[in-house]
Amino acid sequence: MNVHDSVALVTGGNRGLGDRFVRALLENGARKVYAAARDPRRVTAEGAVPIALDVTDPDSVRAAARQAQDVTVLINNAGSNTGASVMEGDFADFRREYETHVLGTLGVTREFAPVLARNGGGQVLNVLSVLSWHTFPGAAAYSAAKSAAWSVTNALRLALRPQGTTVSALHVGYMDTDMTRMLDVPKTDPADIARIALKALEEGREEIIADEVSRQIKTGLSGDLELLYPQLASR
User: Fold this and answer.
1) Which pLDDT score is estimated for 188?
2) Is 151 exposed, middle or buried (0-12, 13-18, 19+ CB in 10 A)?
3) Per-residue confidence at 175, pLDDT binned at 50, 70, 90?
4) Does the pLDDT value for residue 210 go beyond 70?
5) What would the DSSP string read from start to end of the chain?
6) Residue bearing the bigger pLDDT, 143 or 188
7) DSSP states along 193-207
8) Across the chain, which distance is largest between two alpha carbons, in Å?
9) Alpha-carbon distance 23 to 110, whole Å?
10) What distance in Å separates the CA atoms of residue 113 and residue 20, rounded to the nearest whole number?
11) Measured between alpha carbons, how far is residue 213 from residues 87, 220, 226, 233 in Å?
């Protein structure tokens, strides 16, 4: 995939990593970048094409796909983080996370898959997380949704390959965005992550591990459970 002369659509393109994706695409020569947001008036990237899109609303998704018939690159970035915990979290928050990260990602990809096919196949990038592979009680809803989104991403890879569409996944830890503003942890610059991800797409990589914490956690998946969750070793 070449960013130069591509036509991209970025969900959640009005802030955080989504905004950085929009700007990085434009800086690297994309012919057109749709910055999708529930309120397109919040899109600030100069040169972007604001478009209304709520990934949890099927009618909104269909309308966006009808409008953006020239898309060759789809970046499923829109997300939410309710902070719902495993024992006390409201089930409504769990549903919101699932509807956004899993059904939202799936619904947008389904609607745009025929568009991508007509335009030569194209590329889908799903923004996941290191929490696709790891969890803790206070982030149970978000982690569960991201884990399910990873599974859906793998299924989409297989389903869309015959039409020439490549599906990639981005795994990254904490970034310096509004979502992590209250967390006192090391954070990466989302602009750096956007550049890393786009370079990986141009290289044809289907699994993009953007930072050291994600690399460490993925390595730990092949070991004993106690390597990822040391507290279990003290039983």
Assistant:
1) 83
2) exposed
3) confident
4) yes
5) --STT-EEEEETTTSHHHHHHHHHHHHTT-SEEEEEESSGGG---TT-EEEE--TT-HHHHHHHHHH-TT-SEEEE---------TTTS-HHHHHHHHIIIIIIHHHHHHHHHHHHHHTTS-EEEEE--GGGS---GGGHHHHHHHHHHHHHHHHHHHHHGGGT-EEEEEE---BSSGGGTT--S--B-HHHHHHHHHHHHHTT-SEEE-SHHHHHHHHHTTS-HHHH-GGGGG-
6) 143
7) HHHHHHHHHHTT-SE
8) 57
9) 25
10) 24
11) 26, 11, 17, 21
- Is residue 13 within 8 A of residue 43, CB to CB? The reply is yes
Q: What is the pLDDT of residues 74-97, one digit of tens each?
A: 999 999 989 899 999 999 999 999
Q: What angle do CA 77, 80, 82 make, to 5 degrees?
A: 165
Q: How confident is the model at residue 176 (pLDDT cuts 50, 70, 90)?
A: confident
- Residue 113 exposure: Cα atoms within 13 Å on the Cβ side: 19
Residue type, 54: D
